[in-house]
């Protein structure tokens, strides 16, 4: 049996479309599961080699279920990311007119991307209910549970539906980011256009606390591309921070920043270093003066010589 990747299903999700862009899926069995936690549990339980799940969208920010699952429980690591342009279609059973629509459904992350369109085009009292995924919403329309679903146009045929309206997106260029997650192992070698994800916990609430943590990146010239606070669940005001930084853990400036955080945070969870989707190596900004690998190595060599009295 080939190794399997579990993904947020059922068949026909944006997640599946994004997953199929990864060349290695040609040799994997792709298994749709009902939720993000189910996909990650399949990895934790050893039933799947990896899970593929949405993690961030350009309109609303983080997909909190995914972040919360990665923050807690048995550690997992991100190995790949995929960016997908998202535009919705309004899927209905054949014969449904727009004026017949009393109930609609989709994944909660779809709502902010279709809210204005709904206001302008559907009845004022239309009822929205969340589905486990956009394709699951389509399946529920097929079953007659709702009148319409926002989903990818490609999902229509699978569920015997028709796209009544296509190209629905309140924000131009809306994208969703998906990640391939597995059990911890050595990250792939740097490609030159990489990203490192970590979750950090603050020691205790104090003035400038977050700034002190961010400083570990800033002084080493490491650029951040995501900062998301999540409640730890231990009390009001207790937060951890999910951070994506440019660079790879094999880069000295990133490694030194992580060591700096490890010294001052009660917990640092390394979530992986992996190639950055949509960024070519030639587009990566060169390290700020004084933060290249060569400069870090030269500085530690110099220190060793001082400690030896060999200068
Ligand atoms: O993959 C899907 O279809 C999902 O349900 C997750 C999702 C939700 C909103 C935008 C992109 C992906």
UniProtKB/TrEMBL annotation:
Keywords, in A-Z order: Amino-acid biosynthesis, Aromatic amino acid biosynthesis, Lyase, Phenylalanine biosynthesis
One Gene Ontology term of the molecular function aspect: prephenate dehydratase activity
Domain ACT positions: 198-275
Domain of life: Bacteria
Matching InterPro entries: ACT-like_dom_sf, ACT_dom, Chor_mutase/pphenate_deHydtase, Preph_deHydtase, Preph_deHydtase_CS
Pathway(s) of this molecule: Amino-acid biosynthesis; L-phenylalanine biosynthesis; phenylpyruvate from prephenate: step 1/1
Domain Prephenate dehydratase: 4-183
One Pfam family cited in the UniProt record for this chain: PDT
Enzyme Commission code: 4.2.1.51
Catalytic activity from the UniProt record: prephenate + H(+) = 3-phenylpyruvate + CO2 + H2O
SUPFAM superfamilies: ACT-like (SSF55021), Periplasmic binding protein-like II (SSF53850)
Database matches in Gene3D superfamilies: 3.30.70.260, Periplasmic binding protein-like II
Alphabetical list of PANTHER family matching this protein: PREPHENATE DEHYDRATASE P PROTEIN, PREPHENATE DEHYDRATASE-RELATED
Protein name, per record: Prephenate dehydratase
Native source organism of the sequence: Streptomyces endophyticus
Lineage of source species: Bacteria, Bacillati, Actinomycetota, Actinomycetes, Kitasatosporales
């Amino acid at each position: 049996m080939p190794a399997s990747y579990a993904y947020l299903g059922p068949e026909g999700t944006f997640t599946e479309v994004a997953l199929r862009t990864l060349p290695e899926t040609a040799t994997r069995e792709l298994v749709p599961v009902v939720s993000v936690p189910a996909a990650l549990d399949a990895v934790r339980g050893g039933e799947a080699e990896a899970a593929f799940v949405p993690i961030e969208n350009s309109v609303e920010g983080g997909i909190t279920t995914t972040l919360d699952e990665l923050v807690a429980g048995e550690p997992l690591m991100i190995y790949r990311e995929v960016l997908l342009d998202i535009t919705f279609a309004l899927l209905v059973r054949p014969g449904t007119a727009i004026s017949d629509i009393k109930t609609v459904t989709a994944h909660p992350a779809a709502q902010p991307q279709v809210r204005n369109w709904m206001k302008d085009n559907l009845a004022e009292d239309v009822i929205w209910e969340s589905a486990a995924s956009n394709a699951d919403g389509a399946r529920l329309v097929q079953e007659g549970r709702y009148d319409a679903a926002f989903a990818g146009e490609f999902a229509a045929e699978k569920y015997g539906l028709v796209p009544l309206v296509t190209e629905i997106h309140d924000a131009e260029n809306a994208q969703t980011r998906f990640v391939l997650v597995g059990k911890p192992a050595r990250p792939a070698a740097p490609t030159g256009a990489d990203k490192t994800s970590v979750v950090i916990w603050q020691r205790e609430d104090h003035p400038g606390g977050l700034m002190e943590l961010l400083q570990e990146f800033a002084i080493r010239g490491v650029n951040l591309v995501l900062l998301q606070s999540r409640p730890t669940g231990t009390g009001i005001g207790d937060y951890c921070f999910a951070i994506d930084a440019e660079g790879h853990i094999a880069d000295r400036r990133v490694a030194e920043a992580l060591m700096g955080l490890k010294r001052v945070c009660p917990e640092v969870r390394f979530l992986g270093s992996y190639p950055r989707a949509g960024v070519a190596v030639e587009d990566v900004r060169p390290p700020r003066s004084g933060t290249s690998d060569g400069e870090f190595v030269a500085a530690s060599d110099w220190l060793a010589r001082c400690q030896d009295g060999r200068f």
